[in-house]
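SUBJECT: A protein chain and its fold
Encoding: whole-number codes for local backbone shapes
RECORD BEGINS BELOW THIS LINE
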Amino acid sequence: MTRVNVFQQPIGEPVENWQGAQLPSKTVIDGHYCRLEPISVAAHSQELFDALRQAEDERDWTYLLSGPFRDLAEYQTYLARLETLNDPLHYAIVDLSTQQAVGSIALMRIDAQQGVIEIGHVTYSPQLKRTRLATEAISLLLHYTLGELGYRRVEWKCNAHNHPSRAAALRLGFSYEGLFRQAMVARGHNRDTTWYSIIDSDFPALQVAYQQWLAPENLDKQGQQRQKLGELIETQRRAAINP
């Protein structure tokens, strides 16, 4: 039944005792396969620069707003600025098996008062793409923001032409919300932006699916997934609807 006010106008569900969410801090976030560390020139620049240089060409930078970087000095100058910021708040993704930084990611457009935050600046090296670490990094940020800091909504936005990013959002359980036409000019080109989100009520089912997918028993002897993440998410969503 739709709720109405005293004027018989439809209104949303009440959010009782809402005090806003907490701001994320520059703290380490530990996982089973990776660790998220606040970005640091001293700790991460060489490892990240070397990892990102392993790409065959520069196509990974097409839809990002920074890079590619000509040399380590230029990359360090870029990271030095990021290191001072709280929004975006950038993290290095460290592979626990090697203790090497292999990518970076950020929390951004932080609106703690309204409980809205975005995951962005996703920069994965070849060593990180299509690995358990890549998925775990997202799940760690979702748990941190929705599970610990009290956010109600996490957003994912990307260039409408960035089909790998769009596919990743759907695979991770984000819901498509629409196309924002002519949202910005990026690298001298028009950018239409696609919007996705996960809200707090989505997260319990997603968290179970992430845990199941990341579990060692979900890998066979060849290291291949026994069950796909999308299948696990769908199963948990159905279970949430029909307990």
